[in-house]
Amino acid sequence: MRRTAHAVILSICFILTLTACSNSPTGRNQLLLFSGNQMADLGQRSFEEMKQSQPISQDKAVNTYVQCVTQAILKVVPPQSNFSEWEVVVFDSEQVNAFALPGGKVGVYTGLLNVAETPDQLAAVIGHEIGHVLADHSNERLSRSQLAALGLTITGMSLSDSPHAAMAMAGLGLGVQVGILLPYNRAQESESDKIGLQLMHQAGFNPSASVDLWRNMAKASDGAPPELLSTHPSPNTRIKALESGVSHLPNVPHRMKAQCQRPRTN
Predict the structure, then answer these.
(1) What is the number of alpha carbons within 13 Å of residue 237 lying toward its C-beta?
(2) Distances (CA, A) of 188 to 76, 136, 147, 163, 192
(3) Where in the sequence numbering do the catalytic residues fall?
């Protein structure tokens, strides 16, 4: 009986793998078991919960600055099939972090502005986080979690209901307590770095600022890595990869960079 059940599980997993194969924007093979609409709905509802549970910055200068940089990046992002508009919210927190969720939701913590010292450096973070959305990394992570748990009701399960809610949050990169960000894997991080470099380059920002940003990250918090750094690969490894990526960027017509005025930080 156990052998029969095992064979059935393997057969289902094999079929799912064959029918859900996809390629990321960089050509990497992916397993995506959920529809874009499912992921967008999950991201949107999770973001609403975050806005209810975390303080939102009311600083006009900070909001204007973050919106300026983010909108400049979004102008070079192709239209998405599962949502029509991006939403950007600045959370009032000392966390050195930012994120983007399926459904076009971008969150930036005010603490990031103490480390991302220029508009170009902030653009490096924003481009990287949007890269996670464009490459369906949340879907990929959630799909892997689903297969690992051998849940056989994928097409019928509700991503918002228990007992699947915790797994869905992890797929988005959020902890069970919404707002606790979890790491992507190394391949996904490297891929988002590549996408982020391309986006900021096309938007007119200086891609070399991504290297300066990660040097700042490595120095931040007196040896205790900031939240954003703690979820990413080794700074030295990342810096070398970014330097190589910058050197291989194609010569493309640049947009005029938005004149984003960085506000004073404490």
Answers:
(1) 8
(2) 21, 10, 18, 26, 6
(3) 129
